[in-house]
Amino acid sequence: MAAKLTLDAAQVVIAAARQEAEKIGQPVDIAIVDDGNNLVAFARMDGALLGSIDVAMNKAYTARAFEMPTDSLTSLAQPGQPLYGIEASNHGRIILFGGGVPLEDNGVVVGAVGVSGGSVPHDQEVARAGAAAFGSR
Amino acid sequence: MAAKLTLDAAQVVIAAARQEAEKIGQPVDIAIVDDGNNLVAFARMDGALLGSIDVAMNKAYTARAFEMPTDSLTSLAQPGQPLYGIEASNHGRIILFGGGVPLEDNGVVVGAVGVSGGSVPHDQEVARAGAAAFGSR
Amino acid sequence: MAAKLTLDAAQVVIAAARQEAEKIGQPVDIAIVDDGNNLVAFARMDGALLGSIDVAMNKAYTARAFEMPTDSLTSLAQPGQPLYGIEASNHGRIILFGGGVPLEDNGVVVGAVGVSGGSVPHDQEVARAGAAAFGSR
Amino acid sequence: MAAKLTLDAAQVVIAAARQEAEKIGQPVDIAIVDDGNNLVAFARMDGALLGSIDVAMNKAYTARAFEMPTDSLTSLAQPGQPLYGIEASNHGRIILFGGGVPLEDNGVVVGAVGVSGGSVPHDQEVARAGAAAFGSR
User: Fold this and answer.
1) Smallest CA–CA separation between C68 and chain A, in Å?
2) In angstroms, rounded to a whole number, what is the distance separating the alpha carbons of residues A109 and B110?
């Protein structure tokens, strides 16, 4: 059975994401949600975008809600594709681009990390670094 | 005269949809609305996506609101097509892809079923199984 | 360790609440949330108030959010009392009167039931009947 | 000139608050905002109330917004008192009871800490412990 996501584990994810962001030289906002999609921890690095506070939280929300990285939604939600228009649901909390990654324990999604503030590839890289730290904790 | 959709009838629809979803092996969220487009019943199967709670409700809402299956909106709402942008209306409750199906009694729409959680074709199949149970009750 | 609230268990709670409401002769709306405060099941009895759809959901939300029956908030949130004004938080989802009751497993809150549609004492009685069925399932 | 509140300083506040909460034996939610009243950091201790996520954030918001501890608003906002009804402003983000404390640097408010999850006196004690760590850092 999968364990609950603890605050200590969430802070390990944030620390790893922050370290990766510092390596890139791009301050970001980082949010962690648990299996019930409720916020566990959040950190805004010095100089990170204010508009990214909500985007980081919503990337984490989206990755948990649909149990997939947010960049998997990108192509699915384009015009002509199966989930076109899905961002109108979930009360404006769906983000369709990369930077949200599920956190898994024994193959079960127990939460997610969302990163925003840089370019989408940078946000993805930082989020993946956080998720990797969770997987190997 | 068409009958009002009762809770018992809604639960028949949910049971039939659930049975179809179990046959496919895909847990889903299932919502039923009545002729006034107000929620009558809802069920989230164990393991169904959290993000699909709202999508299932909105599929039912959309199918009742426009008295057509939600997949009928898909092509109409694409860029360049007649209903492009319609998802911004109705307070974010419009879904443009399949899985919402009207429930009819003597040719009158008396409600709708919305299903979300699997692929769009699977959601449609499950919703249609629910609607079929309503039609033959 | 406490078990997750399943759909089957939620439907047992709804059935017991409905039976109690029928005994009283008062149709109600009944909502069940899980440990993450996400909706698991909902039922509106025939003739139950439309305005109570949201109130029932919010009673369940409040009981889970604060891990207490909603009637415990009633006196705490009065003018001059410790939590006066708390209903402005949680995006309008806090209900300060009875009808929301936590669902517990081995002393851990794993969800909640919310009932609305009748008088507050009736709603409480119906919610408690639902919770009792959960406790003895 | 007062310094900007950094993420490192916010985490010092959270760590001190958490330590005090652990001493009391009461898990809480802890939020830190900066001089612009935007979230810098957040932590939900294991077992802390879900309903307190928003309350903790709003306590920090209120303490920064009015540059006073939130318990200073309690009597001012009662029926018949000067600020009666103020909680309807600021989009539902005003909290009228204790647990929000400004963070000051050289006599200037540069942010705030909000704590929720226990009794109001406990939340206040935990928030003050966090603010004290900021003052003596």
Assistant:
1) 19
2) 38
